[in-house]
TrEMBL record:
This is Ribosomal-protein-alanine acetyltransferase. One of its GO terms (molecular function) is N-acetyltransferase activity. Belongs to the acetyltransferase family. RimI subfamily. Keywords: Acyltransferase, Cytoplasm, Transferase. The keyword Zinc-finger does not apply. The keyword Cytoplasm applies. Pfam families: Acetyltransf_1. Residues 4-183 form the N-acetyltransferase domain. InterPro entries: AcTrfase_RimI/Ard1, Acyl_CoA_acyltransferase, GNAT_dom, YpeA/RimI_acetyltransf. It comes from Roseiflexus castenholzii (strain DSM 13941 / HLO8). Gene3D superfamilies: 3.40.630.30.
Length: 222
């Protein structure tokens, strides 16, 4: 039985995050780059997903409704930053704020845990972080060949809005640019709540499985 939850990334998490990064991407960030990002919380937010064989401790505080929807729908899967340090990190993601735009920089899941909804869980956590940063819309770049990731983003209201030719330096592949409609609108928030209820049901089912699925599914902004 495996439970998953998300929390804000700290500098102590960098080493574990870099292990997942090396298994997921060909272009890597240095530890100093991560430290710089984590020390700029007004414009940069990073989160991690952790795995536990037992239900994580319940939150002792509840966020405001605008920011705490994920926590309220996934009470067993979202905990306070300081409540757990011993559970392994199985995924991470980040978002930058530029004026009123939230730019999702990365989402990656450890190979042994792909295909279990963790990429979607991380995306939801980043949406909450973007709302907390007062972003009005979200944007990202994704490899034109990464259909799995594109399907996830389409599900959450991202729409294609052009390409960046030869954006990825490892092989010169183009990036598809995707944007959402305003994420604070009633229509988007209602759809988001429906999707989160579905995700919650899926993760509850996953918690009853004996261990991580091992397959080739990859989620990420690359």
């Amino acid at each position: 039985m495996v439970y998953y939850f998300v929390e804000r990334m700290t500098e102590d998490d960098i080493e574990q995050v870099q292990v997942i990064e090396r298994a997921s991407f060909s272009t890597l960030w240095s530890a100093s780059t991560y430290r710089h990002e984590l020390r700029s919380p007004a414009t940069s937010r990073y989160i991690v997903a952790r795995a536990s064989s037992t239900p994580p401790p319940p939150r002792t505080e509840r966020s405001a409704p605008r920011r705490g929807l994920l926590a309220s729908l996934l009470p067993m899967l979202s905990v306070r930053q300081t409540s757990v340090r011993d559970f392994p990190i199985v995924g991470y993601g980040g978002v930058w704020l530029s004026v009123d735009e939230g730019h999702i920089t990365t989402i990656a899941v450890a190979p042994a845990y792909r295909g279990r909804g963790l990429g979607e869980l991380l995306l939801n956590g980043l949406i909450d972080q973007a709302l907390d940063l007062n972003a009005d819309v979200l944007t990202l770049e994704v490899r034109v060949s990464n259909i799995v990731a594109q399907q996830l983003y389409l599900k959450y209201g991202f729409r294609p809005a052009g390409t960046r030719p030869r954006y990825y330096t490892d092989n010169g592949e183009d990036a598809l640019i995707m944007w959402t409609d305003p994420i604070r609108s009633q229509a988007y928030q209602e759809r988001l709540q429906q999707l989160r209820e579905q995700l919650f049901a899926r993760l509850r089912e996953e918690a009853n499985e004996p261990g991580p699925l091992r397959n080739n599914l990859r989620l990420g902004t690359e």
